[in-house]
Amino acid sequence: MQCPNCGYKEMEERIYDETVSHGEESKTLTGMKGQVCPSCGEVVWDKDSYDRFFKVQDELVIAARKKRNKNVARSACMAMTTK
Ligand SMILES: [Zn+2]
Q1: Which of 28, 7, 6 is nearest to 18 (CA)?
Q2: What is the pTM of this model?
Q3: What is the mean pLDDT of each run of 10 residues along the chain (83 residues)?
Q4: With CB atoms 3.0 to 4.6 Å apart as the test, which of 45, 58, 70, 77 could cross-link to 34 if both were Cys?
Q5: How far, in Å, is the centroid of ligand 1 from the Cα of 34?
Q6: 65 located within any domain
């Protein structure tokens, strides 16, 4: 396929690991498949890999939010007991 970024004609198919991170949370996705442009480095994932990436990213955002809520609850509780 042609590179959408620079127009290079022969993007190379690659399978690699991608680490997704959000705040303190991170997760490694193995076997991510995509086309890499040897000219400019642009990466175009196939649909499956793309979906997996965003699904994991969502999970990390939710996990980070839950953690934050827990901390808020704890400090509210401490505020009550110190009164
Ligand atoms: Zn390119």
Answers
A1: 28
A2: 0.69
A3: 96 94 92 96 94 95 89 71 56
A4: 45
A5: 13
A6: yes
